[in-house]
Amino acid sequence: MFAINRHKRLKNLINFRKYVENNVRYFAAKLKDPEVTIPFANGRNLTISTGQYARMADGCAVATIGDTSVMVTVVSKTKSSSAGFLPLVVDYRQKSAAAGRIPTNFLRRELGPSEREILTSRLIDRSLRPLFPDNYNYETQLVCNMLAVDGINSPDVASINAASAALSLSDIPWNGPIGAVRVGLIDTEMIVNPTRKELQQSGLNLIVSATKRNLVVMLEGNADNILHQDLSKAIKLGTKEVQHIVNGIEELQKSFGMPKRILEVPQVLSAEIYEALRSLSEMRVKEIFKNYTLDKLERDNALNNIRMDVLDKIRQSFPDVDLNLLQDGYNKLVKSIFRELIFEEEKRCDGRQFDDIRNISCKVNMYKPLHGSAMFQRGQTQVFCTVTLDSHESAMKLDPMAILTGGVKEKNFFLHYEFPPFATKETGKIGPLGRREMGHGALAEKGLIPTVPHEYPFTIRLTSEVLESNGSSSMASVCGGSLALMDAGVPVNAAAAGVAIGLVTKYDEDKKNVTDYRVLTDLLGIEDYMGDMDFKVAGTKKGFTALQADIKIPGLPLKIVMEAIEKASDAKKTILGIMSDCLSKPRSDKKENWPVCKKLEVEAHKRARLLGIGGINLKKLFAETGVQVSQIDDTTFQIFAPSQNAMDEGEEIITKLLNAERAPELEFGGIYPAKIVELRDIGVMVTLYPGMPPALLHNSQLDQRKVAHPTALGLDVGQELQVKYFGRDPVSGLMRLSRKVLQR
């Protein structure tokens, strides 16, 4: 008994010692404030610290660039969810207090997430998700909390690095760290992490997320028609600079990181069941993928029929099998077969070669009432785009935080993207845009902005509605949107097109590298779902305007990234050639319903005639004709009319206002004839000159005697009186007139 108790005490002592050794780094982080500073080539530094805030979270880190600081916390549940995927949620919020501002809404507090916050959340999510283990299905949340914003350095890149550090320092299994930098291009000089002012002058805004060994994890950017060689140089520079951040986070992790939690061993199908699953479905699935005549719906229906048949037979033979496990096993088997066939057949499931583009058809000028319209069809992806032109008053006004972090006060060009459920033969609620739709629309907008002239006199609203979808609907929106802009007569500097590039790899999990791969041009929906990359690229014939890379494996070598850009460049030129056959340049012949805009120079002394008291003339003009007049500077006005007829009518009214006789200047104390135009209980309304607004001559000023009503003096409409002018009332601005002072 004594020996047994001694053995237990010794075992407990050993376990306690292991516990202390495993957590010594964690306790060290609690006792002091560790941080690491990463210098960049341009002399700017990034500081990452931990151990100060949110100690109950699984991980917490603060990233600081200049005077901009972002705190990111991560918490992951310890119990696996029933979902067959990683339920990762990233919440990025821009706090007005961090910039010393008060929200401008009625409640004066932060409400729902803005578009910029949602897009930044997606940016962080896409940088982190590829490095989680395949079997990690634990609910995980990252919260990015802005502590301070200096208005000079952008907080989005700092948030990615802080999120990487928080995950690395936590006990959550994650194959990081990663780092992220923004690359700009001013003239011919590449700048790492440019300031907001520098970014406004930059022809490139590229964010590169990468891990060690120069493996790219995520790309996102827009450019002003950047050349191929400059884009490649920027990606290589960003990947190189990221290595300093990765090394700094690893240093922090070695000193203060917590031991990673041990995952539950996931349940797998027995060898017998898996073999039965393979034998019942492999040949049938291969036949479907080799049948190049099937379209999206026919292929999906055929695979679904096989799935139902195979699962029923398996459950008859193995009644105790877990249905969710069985379905997951079938899905993985189909994905494996799909990928193997690409390497074996050197063809894709629709019969195309790797570089082939689906059949494309275009139409413009679809409906007469629209300012501009286009239909773009690529395979089974179809988008309908419309352009609406309006005055500058319709420009999108941004909130103060978006102005502070983005540097743009208003947008006179914006794209709205819609993806209704019928586009994929589904039912669902149509309502506010989801994060995915918002991201696709923002990417298409970035691809078209560089082609639209900066000093265009109209506000442009471009809508893109996806009517059919089988992959790459956002890039189809770039193509259709460019055609619609030209159909609306917008003088774009060049047509723009977009294409999605895919990838299928053979990945060595032990060595963590790609052993073989195939790059796929013009991605199908199924190739996106079962592949390893969705690289969207948009641009003109000259260069690139936008790109976004979603990578599903833990890092992609630069060689494959460069090859994908090369394939995208070739495909882009082919698509632009097809679009040119439909419409090669902006429409020059005007449509009847196009709005008209003109500038009007008004002499300073005539400005009051145009405006009227309190702007009454302009309000009346808009109500009668729909013509809007807005002031640019002291003597320059801009006239907007919804049509040429409205412009002609508005110009006629404006000419009359400007050429109207100028009101005579009345002298204080002067005596003038006044014509009665109306009788009232309190007095008479008189005019002193033609075109004058009637002024009140009060009963108390009509006669030396007390007058109850003007008729007591025998006054009537049209009668003339002599009155004396005493200027205007300093409060009300009304004329002060008197008749009785002349009777003395």
UniProtKB/TrEMBL annotation:
SUPFAM superfamilies (UniProt xref): Eukaryotic type KH-domain (KH-domain type I) (SSF54791), Nucleic acid-binding proteins (SSF50249), Ribonuclease PH domain 2-like (SSF55666), Ribosomal protein S5 domain 2-like (SSF54211)
InterPro entries in alphabetical order: ExoRNase_PH_dom1, ExoRNase_PH_dom2, ExoRNase_PH_dom2_sf, KH_dom_type_1_sf, NA-bd_OB-fold, PNPase, PNPase/RNase_PH_dom_sf, PNPase_PH_RNA-bd_bac/org-type
An MF annotation (GO) of this entry: RNA binding
GO BP, sorted A to Z: mitochondrial mRNA catabolic process; mitochondrial RNA 3'-end processing
Gene Ontology CC terms, in alphabetical order: cytosol; mitochondrion
Gene3D superfamilies, sorted: GHMP Kinase, N-terminal domain, K Homology domain, type 1, Nucleic acid-binding proteins
Keywords: Nucleotidyltransferase, RNA-binding, Transferase
Enzyme Commission code: 2.7.7.8
Source superkingdom: Eukaryota
Residue ranges of every copy of the S1 motif domain listed in the record: 669-740
UniProt-listed NCBIfam families: polynuc_phos, PRK11824.1
Family to which this protein belongs: Belongs to the polyribonucleotide nucleotidyltransferase family.
Record-given protein name: polyribonucleotide nucleotidyltransferase
Species this chain originates from: Brassicogethes aeneus (Rape pollen beetle)
